[in-house]
């Protein structure tokens, strides 16, 4: 499957996304996650009903997210395709799916740069007038949203990650968190042309993930560098 076909299929099948067939099963010591896709698409069971880690929004939070209600967030950015399905569940209701809440997502491009920012010491590349790799969706009856993106790059001091915020329809923030990737997956991606090689921080060395890596880790990441990857993650709010 080429990149264009992968992305097209993603557009057409957001209501019933199927994982790519190749499972990434070999994880290094600090991955702490089984990357085989769970039967429930990444959801937690009642014995694992723990609120997801609260993390910083970072220096590049999404601005005016209501303007970016979209499933496809990659814009003009190139990279290995990444299809993400997030399930939001409510701890106060025995971790039942949480329908009708807003999910904002933002990430850097393959070069480690964010849109809406730049031209300063934090990020020399100036993308103040661009809005790639940012989006908002509303959870369906199953508490799920999906985004079509690219695999993120990295920037100094951080392991690769995705930012997520869950909000009520009135704009009250329920949780800000981040998603980590298995080392076996990002090592394969960063060895390809176009990415910047191995990051300067592993998952275990990342200060944001240092106390919560196993709960920040994606529930599953399947696929390969040719066809692209599919990520599932369940996020629990209180």
Automatic annotation (TrEMBL):
Query: PROSITE patterns of this UniProt entry?
Result: PROKAR_LIPOPROTEIN (PS51257)
Task: Domain (Intradiol ring-cleavage dioxygenases): give its ranges.
Answer: 73-181
User: Can you name this protein?
Assistant: Dioxygenase
| Regions annotated as coiled coil | none
Q: List UniProt keywords, sorted A-Z.
A: Dioxygenase, Oxidoreductase
Q: Its Gene Ontology molecular function terms?
A: ferric iron binding; oxidoreductase activity, acting on single donors with incorporation of molecular oxygen, incorporation of two atoms of oxygen
The scientific name of the source species is Chryseolinea serpens
- InterPro entries annotated for this entry? Intradiol_dOase_C, Intradiol_dOase_core
Q: Which domain of life is it from?
A: Bacteria
Task: Show the PANTHER family listed in the entry.
Answer: INTRADIOL RING-CLEAVAGE DIOXYGENASES DOMAIN-CONTAINING PROTEIN-RELATED, PTHR34315
């Amino acid at each position: 499957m080429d990149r264009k076909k992968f992305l097209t299929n993603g557009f057409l099948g957001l209501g019933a996304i199927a994982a790519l067939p190749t499972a990434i099963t070999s994880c290094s010591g600090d991955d702490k996650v089984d990357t085989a896709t769970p039967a429930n698409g990444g959801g937690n069971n009642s014995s694992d009903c723990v609120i997801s880690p609260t993390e910083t929004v970072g220096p590049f939070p999404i601005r005016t997210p209501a303007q970016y209600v979209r499933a496809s967030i990659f814009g003009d950015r190139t990279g290995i395709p990444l299809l993400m399905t997030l399930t939001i569940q409510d701890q106060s209701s025995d971790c039942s799916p949480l329908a009708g809440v807003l999910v904002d997502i933002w990430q850097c491009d393959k070069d480690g740069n964010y849109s809406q920012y730049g031209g300063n010491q934090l990020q020399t590349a100036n993308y103040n007038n661009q809005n790639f790799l940012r989006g908002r969706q509303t959870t369906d009856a199953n508490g799920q949203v999906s985004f079509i993106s690219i695999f993120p790059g990295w920037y100094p001091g951080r392991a690769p990650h995705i930012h997520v915020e869950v909000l009520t329809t009135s704009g009250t923030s329920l949780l800000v968190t981040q998603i980590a990737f298995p080392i076996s997956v990002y090592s394969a991606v960063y060895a390809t042309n176009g990415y910047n090689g191995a990051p300067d921080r592993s998952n275990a060395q990342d200060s944001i993930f240092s106390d919560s890596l196993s709960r920040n880790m994606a529930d599953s990441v399947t696929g390969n560098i040719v066809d692209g990857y599919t990520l599932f993650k369940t996020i629990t709010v209180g």
